[in-house]
Design goal:
about 200 residues, alpha+beta, Lipocalin
């Protein structure tokens, strides 16, 4: 009888312990990791149709930000700040116009910011980032859709790097940038974000 009780007790303890471990396992794997954007592999490029003929392109060369990911919880956060005066189209005269009051008005608004705490996952893959773009003092919703996403062990940094290519199309007038609409300059601006971030 004592042996039966001892066996039953041991079995109960083992079962209870196994249950605790099973409950704790997801918590053990849940981890919020911070990544710092790599400025040498992170760029925001814009594309605008030029009178229905060719596509005008440019990019912002100065930016900084960070990303946090919790893969187990399928959650993420992003904070990206762009120095608008760093715009580069390859045409100095055009750049001067772009940083002026007609477009980015960099003296009054030296930066643009995109923030998000709503990541859309498909398994381990980030498929979209829903966030808020603040530009020219106005904020509005923007969704960046991933055309590719990947994480890898960087052989130089010896740390994990995650990132990809994301894109969206905005109507610039929604942020008060209405110059040239009456001249036929399109309202629609395609934004392509190339981003890589290094695990901290």
């Amino acid at each position: 009888m004592k042996n039966l009780i001892a066996t039953a007790t041991a079995t109960s303890v083992f079962t209870f312990g196994a249950a605790l471990l099973a409950c704790a396992a997801p918590l053990a794997h849940a981890e919020t990791v911070t990544y710092q954007l790599d400025p040498t592999h992170t760029f925001v490029t814009f594309e605008v149709l030029h009178f229905g003929t060719s596509t005008v392109r440019g990019r912002f060369d100065k930016k900084e930000g960070s990303i946090t990911l919790d893969r187990a919880a399928r959650k993420g956060q992003l904070d990206l700040t762009i120095e608008t005066a760093s715009i580069s189209s390859g045409v100095p005269g055009f750049d001067k116009h772009l940083i002026g009051a007609d477009f980015f008005d960099v003296e009054k608004h030296p930066s643009a910011r995109f923030t998000s705490d709503s990541f859309v996952f498909d398994g381990d893959q980030v498929k979209a980032i829903n966030g808020t773009l603040t530009l020219l003092g106005k904020s509005g919703p923007v969704t960046l859709t991933a055309s590719r996403y990947n994480c890898y062990m960087n052989p130089i940094f010896k740390r994990e790097v995650c990132g990809g290519d994301f894109e969206t199309t905005i109507q610039r007038s929604a942020w008060g940038m209405g110059y040239g609409l009456n001249l036929g300059i399109p309202d629609a601006v395609r934004l392509v974000v190339q981003a890589e971030a290094i695990k901290q």
